[in-house]
Predict the structure.
Amino acid sequence: MATMSRCYYNETIGFFYNNSGKELSSHWRPKDVVVVALGLTVSVLVLLTNLLVIAAIASNRRFHQPIYYLLGNLAAADLFAGVAYLFLMFHTGPRTARLSLEGWFVRQGLLDTSLTASVATLLAIAVERHRSVMAVQLHSRLPRGRVVLLIVGVWVAALGLGLLPAHSWHCLCALDRCSRMAPLLSRSYLAVWALSSLLVFLLMVAVYTRIFFYVRRRVQRMAEHVSCHPRYRETTLSLVKTVVIILGKSSRQREQKVRALQDRASASKEERRPVWLERSRREGAFVVCWTPGQVVLLLDGLGCKSCNVLAVEKYFLLLAEANSLVNAVVYSCRDAEMRRTFRRLLCCLCLRRSPHESARYAPSTRTGASTRIMLPENGHPLMDSTL
């Protein structure tokens, strides 16, 4: 019992890696070079895309609405994740052995905090979208205080999970509880972190599934009214598109059903090929990026000795980081007004902007993601960018 209560605060990183059976290389191996090269590329892309999203939200007054604050917070969390992963890339491989215990906890805490904030914000966006769609409300009518509380709650939870291991939830005083993937962390921490993330994913699936069926019913009712307003039709179909992309519905039968709904809704217009259906044949971005890593973390947290988690951990972490890039595409870049703002910002940076182009890219009051329409059922206005 005396051995079990002993703490090893003065040991090196190599001591804990040897205890967990994780190899600590003293030189750059080919797979280390590949992981770092891919990691640096992904990190730079994550930083650039999310900086662009934040700049667009800050510069365009149309985005100064509560729901866009959540999208901005998602971009900030993903930007933080890019910084954290970039820090990891400069302190991995042979450089890991030179880290102090405090430096290792800083490296791990940055990752845990940023990724937790990103996942929690995704859930907050799903909940607010569900509330808006079900109530058929304009985003600007969402209480600003409610959104601020959500954002504060997200970061409090993220900082708590990120800082807790360095102060108490580690295995420096219980070597038999150390995990293999993160040799200084307790296996119970990995299990809780993985289970909480999987729970968030299940909640998101439940929320967006309910939104999907709700919107599908509205499309069916919409198809029965020949005089349906074009903006109403485009908005409703946009809801279906985004929900399918987020959930990653790859079923051919589901695609055919949604295609039929779209054909019925646009029977009075020339049929256009729905490019989004080609994208939805792949698995959902969140599922592909997060599920493998969470399953591996859970297996390690549960102490699975026969599971070779160390063989895939670096690649699955890279995949999870790639979700910070995908978020910007799925949640922001599909917004027409957002894309116009991107072009305006990029033209400004490239010194190509002219008075003529400024007028060309000026926000339109007739088209784009921020167009207000009137729903025929209850008269509530809705924006094209509801999702």
Summary: The chain has 13 helices and two strands. Residues 47 and 79 are 5 Å apart (CA to CA). The longest helix spans residues 187-223. Confidence is low (pLDDT under 50) at residues 248-258, 265-283, 355-387.
